[in-house]
Design a protein that fits this description.
- By secondary structure, the protein is an alpha+beta fold.
- It has one domain.
- Helices cover 16% and strands 43% of the residues.
- The termini are far apart.
Amino acid sequence: MINIARKKPVEVEVCQWTGKNWDEIKEFCGDVVYKHPLESIENVYGSIKVYDLMIHTLEGDHKANPGDYIIKGVHGEFYPCKPDIFEKTYDIIS
């Protein structure tokens, strides 16, 4: 038999990674988030380090790109979510 199911409404805490709000993300996620050095870019101001934002999840480490939402799950776990999926799944309420 095939059934139709509806996802239960659950409120979760989220923070969007902008690529520039490391301190906010670190405060939100704690020790499960870290910067992984990607490369150094030379410009007129000198060398700039570029990092990937990495999150320890229940399924292993996942990279979060700027624009991704970082979600704190119902069991306190953190994971990244692409903006298009987030907008189809969640509504920001505050």
